[in-house]
Amino acid sequence: MPRHILDESRIHPAVREAVAQNHRDIVEEVSAAVDAHDIVVVGMAQNPSPKKARKLLDAAGLKYQYLEYGSYFNTWRRRNALKLWTGWPTFPMVFVKRQLVGGASDLEKLVASGELKKLLGRG
């Protein structure tokens, strides 16, 4: 099912550039990492879920790129740009082979079912 996103034609021309450029740098950084690595985990400090995702990958012996943006006390506006970009509401955001697979509990299910190895072409 496609995600419902406000069509650009419904954004006034005077603000389109501001919408398009809103924390674009963080989105481009994550997008470049997703293009360059088989597995990317995007997280934040003090949140136990990104740590859980990294532990799962470490236990499975899988290499990954980890990007961390702020904590509960800062950087929420920049992280919000990632949420808007992906549509995923929480951290971590886990990408496998350029595809968003969800968060830590979703990754745990992929590992347990063997699906993660299949996504990586190893199973």
UniProtKB/TrEMBL annotation:
It comes from the Bacteria. One of its GO terms (biological process) is cellular response to oxidative stress. InterPro entries: Glutaredoxin, Thioredoxin-like_sf. Residues 50-101 form the Glutaredoxin domain. PANTHER family: GLUTAREDOXIN 2, GLUTAREDOXIN-1-RELATED. It comes from Solimonas fluminis. GO terms for cellular component: cytoplasm. Belongs to the glutaredoxin family. One of its GO terms (molecular function) is glutathione disulfide oxidoreductase activity. The lineage of its organism: Bacteria, Pseudomonadati, Pseudomonadota, Gammaproteobacteria, Nevskiales. PROSITE patterns: GLUTAREDOXIN_2 (PS51354). This is Glutaredoxin. Coiled coil: none annotated. Gene3D superfamilies: Glutaredoxin.
